[in-house]
């Protein structure tokens, strides 16, 4: 086995402009291959290092901005990504997804550059920084001192298909490192902390987090207790389908868990009332997203008028309805069952939406619609499809929600249909961008929803 050797960098090599020539070519190749890269299909025209912090020799914490010539139908022209980069002088048997390649220019010339989250030394360092509440330049590591976090827990990078990257430490804690960084507090820190203050045990409470103050304030990562043995709703739903089992008891309990979280969110944040003007604003927003989605995925076009009828009906609703902070991207992959209870994770919201929008008060029906779409996803994940199975889950989930909250989402069919339609449109764009093989699943729903009586 080749001996690996850590390189050291001169302090004056760490300037963003000086370092960029070393990384630019490698990142242009490597970034678009990452699941969390949002600019798929749009060539990167420019890269800029927004900040570089040396956490140890040479483990570089980097915020990088990627610009694209083509602006997405919705969203910013550029994105900021968080990277932890390591270098070494000689090849190692490091797994290939970790390897960016060999730098040919600048201060790293001749060195192999890799994603240091794959490397135990760097991931251990992150935990140690969080434990000790350290600050290095603009990076602030903070923690809840009421919780004791042991030193030396063994790290492993989670292999799950996810939008960020997560490290599990000794099966005791999980650190989510946000890959796509936006200015402001990330709801995945803000909301679970607020829920913990409410005594809500359905959501793992953050015990430590880290943030940057340069080039702007932003949350970079959150450490939470790891739900050992937790199995996610998606895996369990597929298992049930594979063995021709019903999933209604589980769906009922998920409905109860969702309602419990919504009640705690209502207590933690303010509840507002949405009136007729708000219904029209919402409908306009949904119609606008559909227009953008058609631009990105022209296959949606034949269904456009049917889908718009759902939004038109929403625009006519004039009974005041409550709105509050919600999960924002609820689906079967966001619920984990551990010790017989469903827990809810990942309050980041839909990653493609701007943060202020994700933090806005919204109808809880939006989360319900997300989960109902997810039963439909599971039922259409493999042939033969099982639409009736999904319908039974749907009824059970809504019944569970009503049992806990005293309010049945089925009482608002027009609102539910509009949110399900909006969600299916989002899913079409998401799948086209990230997992084209999955596109038929939300497209089947689009066809059905477009055909539904208005
Ligand atoms: N507290 C936790 N305990 C156990 N597993 C977790 C926990 N939080 C997340 N996970 C696992 O990590 C995966 C990714 O987490 P998630 O927050 O959904 O990340 P992302 O936003 O990157 O998709 C989940 O599917 C789940 O399997
Ligand atoms: O990973 P995130 O939680 O950020 O969510 C994104 O990825 C999800 C897929 O991993 C995607 O969910 C869609 O596929 C799921 C099955 O893999 C299904 O259960 C969901 O209902 C469906 O929306 C999610 O939309 C996206 O935001």
Automatic annotation (TrEMBL):
<keyword id="KW-0320">Glycogen biosynthesis</keyword>
<keyword id="KW-0119">Carbohydrate metabolism</keyword>
<keyword id="KW-0547">Nucleotide-binding</keyword>
<comment type="subunit">
    <text>Monomer.</text>
</comment>
<keyword id="KW-0418">Kinase</keyword>
<feature type="domain" description="Maltokinase N-terminal cap">
    <location>
        <begin position="30"/>
        <end position="118"/>
    </location>
</feature>
<keyword id="KW-0067">ATP-binding</keyword>
<dbReference type="InterPro" id="IPR011009">
    <property type="entry name" value="Kinase-like_dom_sf"/>
</dbReference>
<comment type="similarity">
    <text>Belongs to the aminoglycoside phosphotransferase family.</text>
</comment>
<keyword id="KW-0808">Transferase</keyword>
<keyword id="KW-0321">Glycogen metabolism</keyword>
<protein>
    <recommendedName>
        <fullName>Maltokinase</fullName>
        <ecNumber>2.7.1.175</ecNumber>
    </recommendedName>
</protein>
<dbReference type="Pfam" id="PF18085">
    <property type="entry name" value="Mak_N_cap"/>
</dbReference>
<comment type="pathway">
    <text>Glycan biosynthesis; glycogen biosynthesis.</text>
</comment>
<dbReference type="InterPro" id="IPR040999">
    <property type="entry name" value="Mak_N_cap"/>
</dbReference>
């Amino acid at each position: 086995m080749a001996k690996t050797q850590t390189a050291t960098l001169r302090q004056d090599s760490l300037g963003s402009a000086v370092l960029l020539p070393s990384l630019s070519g490698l990142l242009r190749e490597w970034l678009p291959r990452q699941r969390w890269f949002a600019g798929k299909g749009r060539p990167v025209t420019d890269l800029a290092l927004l900040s570089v912090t040396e956490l140890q020799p040479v483990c570089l914490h980097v915020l990088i901005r990627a610009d694209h010539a083509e602006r997405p139908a919705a969203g910013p022209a550029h994105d900021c990504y968080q990277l932890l980069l390591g270098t070494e002088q000689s090849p190692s048997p490091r797994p290939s997804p970790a390897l960016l390649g060999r730098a040919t220019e600048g201060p790293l010339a001749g060195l192999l550059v890799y994603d240091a989250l794959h490397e135990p030394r760097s991931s251990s360092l992150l935990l140690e920084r969080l434990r000790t509440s350290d600050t290095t330049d603009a990076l602030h590591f903070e923690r809840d001192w009421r919780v004791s976090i042991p030193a030396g827990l063994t790290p492993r990078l989670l292999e799950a298909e996810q939008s960020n990257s997560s490290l599990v430490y000794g099966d005791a804690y999980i650190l989510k490192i946000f890959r796509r960084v936006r200015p402001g507090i990330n709801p995945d820190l803000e909301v679970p902390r607020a829920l913990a203050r409410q005594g809500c045990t359905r959501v793992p409470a953050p015990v430590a987090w880290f943030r940057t103050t340069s080039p702007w304030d932003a949350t970079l990562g959150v450490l939470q207790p790891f739900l050992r043995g937790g199995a996610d709703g998606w895996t369990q739903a597929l298992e049930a389908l594979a063995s021709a089992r019903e999933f209604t008891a589980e769906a009922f309990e998920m409905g109860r868990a969702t309602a419990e979280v919504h009640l705690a969110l209502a207590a933690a944040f303010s509840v507002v009332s949405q009136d007729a003007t708000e219904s029209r604003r919402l409908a306009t927003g949904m119609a606008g997203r559909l227009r953008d989605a058609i631009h990105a995925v022209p296959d949606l076009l034949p269904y456009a008028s049917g889908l718009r009828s759902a939004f038109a009906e929403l625009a006519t609703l004039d009974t005041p309805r409550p709105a509050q902070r919600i999960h924002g991207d609820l689906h079967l992959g966001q619920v984990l069952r551990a010790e017989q209870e469903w827990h809810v994770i990942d309050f980041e919201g839909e990653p493609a939406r701007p943060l202020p929008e994700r933090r806005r008060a919204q109808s809880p029906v939006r989360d319900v619609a997300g989960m109902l779409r997810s039963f439909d996803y599971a039922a259409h994940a493999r042939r033969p499809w099982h639409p009736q199975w999904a319908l039974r889950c749907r009824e059970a989930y809504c019944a569970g929600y009503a049992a806990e909250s005293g309010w049945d989402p089925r009482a608002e069919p027009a609102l539910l249909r509009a949110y399900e339609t909006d969600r299916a449109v989002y899913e079409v764009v998401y799948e086209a961008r990230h997992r084209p093989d999955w596109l038929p699943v939300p497209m089947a729903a689009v066809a059905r929803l477009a055909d539904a009586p208005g």
